[in-house]
Design brief:
Elements (H helix, E strand, L loop, with lengths): L2 H14 L3 H16 L5 H11 L6 H44 L3 H29 L3 H15 L5 H18 L1 H4 L5 H7 L17 H26 L4 H13 L6 H15 L5 H12 L8 H12 L6 H27 L3 H5 L2 H30 L8 H15 L5 H18 L1
Helix pairs in contact: 1-4, 2-4, 3-4, 3-9, 4-14, 4-15, 5-13, 5-17, 5-18, 5-19, 6-7, 6-17, 7-17, 10-15, 11-15, 12-14, 12-17, 13-14, 14-15, 18-19
Length: 429
């Protein structure tokens, strides 16, 4: 395919990438492997397995990797940027509407119906990820330990991830059968198919120390320069500078995707720093679920609302927009660095048994972390601090879970149905 053809596809993908990581990966598989035949099945799965080893949104990183595979650095940048770009503007507009007009009765009623749906989405994610990740008793024990650590002991999320990885790595060496992960279902399904031999894709720069140093230097410069300008304009201790540092750290520990990193952000931004409320974080997840692009865009909403709530001497809108852009930049810059740095070593990374075992422990711990998120959100929506069960929220949440888990309904449609239920309830009242 020409660069122009690929460019048009990546631009289109950014507007139709609904459905979370699974839906976005399915869209790329259908379009690139089955319909356009730009890449064969085995090559696609090869890239997918690599991206699932990385922290960050695997669907966005898969698009970046495939773009790099097709047309080098320029192709990877176009694919990765356009995967995110539409959702930046859509979510920015929705965030402003929420912040400026969220107290209006109609908007409040809409979110009253959406919040229990979001709880159901998180619970369904626990079930879905747990079914895949908890393939051995040792993984169940790690997930339970992670839940106890974050829910009862308030252990920081990065420490939980690190401990789970070390434990699984050490346990895998002592008792391999206890920690060996089951083959990935997606890869297993594709492995049995005969890969159609298509045109050879261009080979890129082989792994070398020079390539690694250039990539790291470029990534460091792209991180340092905006940060230096921000510190010069707003100060080292400003909220915007603290956000730059905090969300950079979050981007490096996002194993498990948006739900796990949101649990980490909730623990810090809501609990430790007080940047926004628990209810606002829940509303942000609802908005992110209904927009195209990676679900981890919820962090842009968190950055927006944190600076809207604490403008620090400038207008709320200006502060919030700057906070949203800072959050998005620091969240996705490491994703590009990871892909461009690691792609030349893809075969060695995939064949490293110790790394695979350690990551199986990390994935198991993510199940416990997401369960914590489900309980925190569920308590806020169904058992609020004001006391008593909110029966409307409980019924809507159960109905949404059944629709998602039993009938495999699309997330966007379930969220819209919840919003309609909230508006209908307010109208009848």
């Amino acid at each position: 395919m020409s660069f122009g053809e690929a460019f048009r596809f990546w631009a289109k993908l950014g507007f139709i990438s609904f459905g979370g990581p699974a839906g976005q990966i399915a869209i790329m598989h259908r379009e690139l492997v089955e319909r356009r035949r730009w890449i064969d099945e085995q090559r696609f799965l090869h890239a997918l397995n690599f991206c699932m080893l990385l922290p960050g949104p695997e669907a966005q990183q898969l698009a970046t990797y495939l773009g790099w595979l097709f047309h080098g650095l320029a192709g990877g940048l176009v694919a990765g940027v356009f995967f995110v770009l539409p959702s930046i503007f859509v979510l920015m507009i929705l965030s402003y509407i929420y912040a400026a007009f969220g107290s209006l009765p109609a908007v409040a009623a809409l979110f009253a119906g959406v919040k229990p749906v979001v709880v159901a989405i998180v619970v369904e994610a626990v079930v879905r990820i747990g079914r895949r990740a908890l393939c051995r008793p040792a993984h169940v024990a790690i997930a339970a330990g992670a839940f106890v650590a974050i829910y009862f002991l308030h252990v920081p999320f990065p420490l939980i991830v690190l401990a789970a990885g070390v434990l699984a790595f050490a346990g895998g060496r002592l008792r391999p059968r206890w920690f060996t992960a089951a083959p990935d279902r997606i890869a297993g399904a594709g492995a049995g198919q005969a890969a159609e031999q298509l045109r050879d894709l261009p080979s890129h720069e082989p792994p070398s120390r020079a390539h690694a140093l250039r990539t790291l230097a470029a990534g460091a410069a792209l991180w340092v320069l905006p940060f230096a300008l921000l510190v010069a304009a707003r100060g080292w201790d400003s909220l915007h500078a603290r956000q730059y540092r905090f969300f950079t750290q979050a981007a490096l520990v996002t194993f498990g995707g948006a739900y796990s990193v949101l649990a980490y952000v909730m623990q810090a931004a809501v609990g430790s720093y007080g940047w926004l409320s628990q209810a606002q974080a829940l509303d942000g997840l609802a908005l992110a679920e209904t927009t195209p692009g990676p679900l981890i865009m919820v962090l842009q909403f968190v950055g927006f609302m944190a600076c809207w709530n604490h403008p620090e001497g400038i207008s709320q809108a200006a502060s919030a927009v700057l906070g949203a852009l800072i959050t998005t930049w620091t969240t996705f810059l490491p994703c590009f660095v990871f892909v461009f740095l690691g792609a030349p070593w893809i075969e060695q990374l995939r064949g490293h048994e110790g790394l695979t075992t350690a990551l199986s422990g990390v994935t198991a711990s993510v199940v416990g972390v997401i369960l914590n998120l489900a309980l925190v959100f569920g308590a806020a929506v169904i058992l609020p601090a004001t006391g008593g069960v909110v029966w409307f929220a409980l019924v809507v949440g159960i109905a949404a879970f059944v629709a998602l888990h039993r009938f495999k309904a699309g997330i966007v449609w379930v969220v819209l149905a919840g919003a309609a239920a909230g508006l209908g309830r307010a109208w009848l009242a």
